[in-house]
């Protein structure tokens, strides 16, 4: 009964004070599939009950969640949505080719590391750049960012390796041109006493349909296979897997506090960091930015992007397990939803960062997802958004909850003005 009451309340909230006209300059048809942006056309839905085990046992305490319900839900996410990741490679190795160079006028120590996923070092590898605050004398906490660009493209530092990236034509080219995603201000993390590390996602797995032929998934595909089996990993799982391999390195570096690592990524990489944090509990904290459909937003809400849009063969089908593709027309039978991903982070800190005009990613759906997941955080005595909360743009009242939510005024991006808020969250929980 509680499940239906909560779902009804969420529906009422989704309509309360948020009715709006179809936003201007937004696609109303994507991949031949209609797109809805009106709250009064979202439709009714009932969310899967997070606090009831598969055998009907109610979850009334943290122990039952941790030992029984969480493993059930984790298995569903693996087998249906993102696909199963392989374990840490036995032949993985690290090469620290920049072992501690002063950077940023002496404020930081810079390291550059190549992580080799296989014994053959000519392929299947990723490059990390790490900045540690020089003023800190003990092992430093880190923000681990996964980026759409090579690190030399987003950081002003002449000592950085010029690597390679995948262009729009699916070809590997030198990363010697400016990025369209702007620059990262590393100083702001150093001043907060937090180190910064970033990796180019294409080092792990290229972001296009044929990328499996070149990325880490291709190493694991069985002989004779042309595509993954229904429960095998998509590209999002590959990016998440790569983040865990970075953590493997952090655990070897005595200047890094591997117990205090935060993850951050945006859009499809917001999905990747959320899944990485769920799957690998070594990560202390996750900031999932504008993760939208397939991330924190509720799939059962017919608003903006839907499962059918995102898994269309002309779009991002390759990012998910093949099983997920079958739910485009039957989302109500999906035994999980965005609130499941949010809840699986409990009790570790999770911040959902969204944009008020990012209708395609459904910021309202992310908020309602957090509301639905908050009872799981409550099992551990931690706070999250409540049904009576009504977030508005740039409102910080929900920011510092253990399960936090922050929505900037604007669209599908991480704004420079967002970072002070994200840093405040990290300072509280790291």
Describe the structure.
The structure is a single chain. Helices cover 28% and strands 19% of the residues. It is α/β, with parallel strands linked by helices and 430 residues long. It has 2 domains: 2-82 and 284-429, no CATH class; 93-266, Rossmann fold (3-Layer(aba) Sandwich). It is globular and about 55 Å long. The model is unreliable at 1-20 (pLDDT under 50).
Which strands sit side by side, in order, in the main sheet? 3-4-5-9-6-10-11-12-13
Helix content: 25-40%
What overall form do the CA principal axes indicate?
globular
Question: What is the rounded Rg?
Answer: 21 Å
Average per-residue pLDDT, rounded, comes to 94
Structural class: alpha/beta
Q: Estimate the strand proportion.
A: 15-25%
Distance between the termini: 38 Å
Q: Give the number of DSSP strands.
A: 13
Question: Major beta sheet, specifics?
Answer: 9 strands, mixed
Keywords: Hydrolase, Serine esterase, Signal
InterPro entries: AB_hydrolase_fold, GCE-like_dom
Signal peptide: 1-19
Domain 4-O-methyl-glucuronoyl methylesterase-like: 231-381
Sum this structure up briefly.
With 430 residues, the chain is α/β, with parallel strands linked by helices. The protein is built from twelve helices and 13 strands.
Provide the fold topology:
Blueprint: H1 2-15, E1 29-30, E2 33-34, H2 62-82, E3 93-103, E4 108-116, E5 125-133, E6 140-147, H3 151-154, E7 164-166, E8 172-174, H4 187-191, E9 195-200, H5 216-220, H6 235-250, E10 256-266, H7 268-279, E11 285-289, H8 307-310, H9 322-325, H10 338-344, E12 350-355, H11 363-379, E13 403-408, H12 419-429
Parallel strand pairs: 6-9, 6-10, 10-11, 11-12, 12-13
Antiparallel strand pairs: 1-2, 3-4, 4-5, 5-9, 7-8
Helix pairs in contact: 1-11, 6-7, 10-11
